[in-house]
Amino acid sequence: MKRAAIAALLAAVFLVVTAGAEAKEPPTGFQLCGGNACTTIGMNDGEQLAISLFYGGGSVEVWTPSAAPGPFYSLRWSYEQGQVHTAYYVPDLNMVRFVGDSASATVDPRGAIHWLRLDAQARGILDRIATPFQPTPAPSPSTVLVGGKAVQDPASYLRLWSVGKPTYSWPRGGFLKIKVTSDVASPWRTSPHISASRAAARSCCGTRRSCGSPRSSHRRSARAPRSASGHA
């Protein structure tokens, strides 16, 4: 019995050591870019960042944040030539967003969307390296389509990201698809879509000009749908 326990303990230690040994940074490292410059993250910082983001470190996956778009940095890496992963670091949220399997050799733009809340080590690395240059400003939508029809005030639709709560209920009448595009790649432009219930669309978007606070439910296509209660 004692020998079995010792063998199990040694096996567990071996697995931990093996996982740590395989937790390597991308071959070409990480590149962090702001609005006016880019820099390469060095080997020591890069390995710690990879462990935090990809290999079960202290950063944890969370629901899609309910917050208005803000300034951000782009984080890029590659495990295979020509297959570049792009994530976005949003300092105001202390989060990184990426799509698909971050440690995969190939990039799948149709993969699942992930938001990670950073641990103190990853946050410290990114903040220190980003200090010399400014983040990319919060994006402004160039076009917004509600149910396939263009609106006249695209910028007003940014508020849709700052309302809502996780839900799995389906509104009567189904959803209207809201497609938001901008000229700058960002954590918000690359979301597949936002959906609003038809009641919400009538109350906040019925004029096709601007979008107020919806009085029914809306959802965002990410880890979970959300519903929103509006305010007068």
Concise overview:
With 232 residues, this protein is α+β, with helices and mostly antiparallel strands. Helices cover 22% and strands 26% of the residues. It starts with a helix and ends in a 5-residue tail after the last strand.
Largest sheet: 7 strands, antiparallel
SSE string: HEEHEEEEEHEEEEEHEE
Mean pLDDT: 75
Widest sheet, order of strands: 2-1-4-5-6-7-3
The 3D shape can be described as globular
Account of the 3D structure:
The protein is α+β, with helices and mostly antiparallel strands and 232 residues long. It folds into two domains: 2-130; 143-227, no CATH class. It has helices at residues 2-22, 43-54, 120-130, 198-205, and strands spanning 30-33, 38-41, 60-62, 73-80, 83-90, 95-99, 113-117, 143-146, 149-150, 165-166, 175-181, 194-197, 218-220, 226-227. The strands form three sheets. The chain has a seven-stranded antiparallel sheet with strand order 2-1-4-5-6-7-3. A five-stranded antiparallel sheet has the order 9-8-11-12-13. The longest helix has 21 residues, at 2-22. The termini are far apart. The model is unreliable at 5-21 and 205-232 (pLDDT under 50).
